[in-house]
Write a structure and sequence with these properties.
about 350 residues; alpha+beta; five-stranded antiparallel β-sheet; four-stranded antiparallel β-sheet; elongated
């Protein structure tokens, strides 16, 4: 019997069933289990006779010499299982528990299939399904935050591929102010934050790391310029001192920031920290501390808690947030002809006659 891809897949699935001592697989259960995978991957099915032939083939001493035994129970019923609990026809096979965990992972990855999925992720899912004889669950049981309308998401696969394979890129990037800037980037790291994707890489001209939002990359191509290996930045700790994805300049130092929350909001903050450094200073007063380098992204997080948050210290940061709140309040207290007295908001964020993208 030739061991083609379909046959190999059948043996993988049967091997896993025979190794599962948590349930009893009757012959029809084995047929159904194999057909679930075959139909999903190839659109074909096999007969009960084929499964019996597969069992015979796996038992053969020349092939796998598998200790498959038929056990009778409840009268005439019969189930199949390995006599030796440690046996497997694959030296690198995963345990049943490992396979169950992998199945859950494939289920989660399968959530991203569809119009928003990229080729890279589709290949990963399909490879896992084939290699281990698993398939993603068609039921919608798990949901992830994803923005299917995000501009540039179709480039994510190529960006990740270039980062993994150390491929230098020539990029044309659109800044927040609408200026198109050509640059050479040595991609080091890809990160998702707040529904958007960001590429971090060495900027050839600046000689330092640039943070590029995926939706700001107008076009890119692979470059023949030799890749400069990352020997300076540790991205496992790179974001430790910030809340978000923006690393401020060296003048912005790490601060101990004290925050007080309303009693109704405090339990949420206590269980979902604003930053990894967060500690509870006084639970009775609903006060916490975080140690970060202040950025606009931190401001945005704090504003999302208004009116349930108060900055206690340092004084300069308290005054900065207080001023922003006061400036915002003016927009609600001086309405004229359906528009505020803030010229920027009345001009649709235009500059030189062009509508600008506002990226928060």
């Amino acid at each position: 019997m030739p061991t083609n891809k379909k046959a190999q897949l059948r043996y993988q699935i049967l091997d896993r069933c025979f190794s599962d001592f948590s349930r009893k697989y009757e012959i029809q259960d084995l047929v159904d289990k194999v057909n679930d995978a075959l139909y999903d991957l190839y659109g074909t099915e096999v007969s009960l006779r084929q499964i019996r032939d597969d069992i015979k083939y796996m038992r053969d001493r020349v092939t796998y010499d598998a200790p498959i035994k038929a056990y009778q129970y409840d009268g005439k019923k019969c189930y199949y299982r390995y006599e030796d609990r440690s046996f497997t026809i694959f030296n690198n096979a995963l345990s049943v528990d490992d396979m169950n965990k992998l199945q859950s992972t494939i289920d989660m990855l399968g959530k991203f299939r569809g119009p928003a999925a990229n080729i890279w992720l589709e290949e990963v899912i399909s490879s896992l399904e084939y290699r281990f004889g698993l398939k993603s669950n068609v039921e919608h049981l798990i949901s992830f935050e994803q923005n299917e309308q995000l501009k540039g998401i179709e480039n994510l696969a190529d960006i990740i591929d270039s980062t993994v394979n150390h491929q230098t890129l020539e990029i044309v990037y659109l800044t927040f102010r609408g200026k198109e800037i050509p640059m050479v980037i040595h991609p080091y790291y890809v990160k998702q934050y707040n529904g958007r994707w960001f590429l971090y890489g060495l900027n050839d001209e600046l000689g330092k790391i640039s943070n590029l939002a995926l939706d700001g990359i107008l076009k890119f191509r692979k470059s023949d310029i030799p890749f400069k290996k990352n020997e300076q930045y540790d991205f496992s700790t790179y974001f430790d001192d910030v809340a978000g994805v923006t690393i401020p300049n060296d003048e912005v130092k790490k601060e101990t920031i004290g925050l007080r929350f309303s009693r109704s909001r405090f339990p949420y903050v206590a269980t979902k920290p604003i930053h990894r450094s967060q500690i509870i200073v006084d639970e009775s007063k609903c006060e916490i501390e975080i140690q970060v380098r202040p950025t606009r992204e931190l401001d945005q997080q704090l504003f999302s808690f208004i009116p349930d948050v108060e900055v206690l210290y340092p004084e300069w940061y308290r005054q900065q947030i207080q001023k922003k709140i006061a400036d915002n309040l003016k927009k609600y207290s001086s309405v004229q002809d359906g528009c505020t007295d803030n010229a920027d908001l009345c001009s649709d964020n235009r500059e030189d006659g062009k509508i600008m993208d506002v990226k928060l």
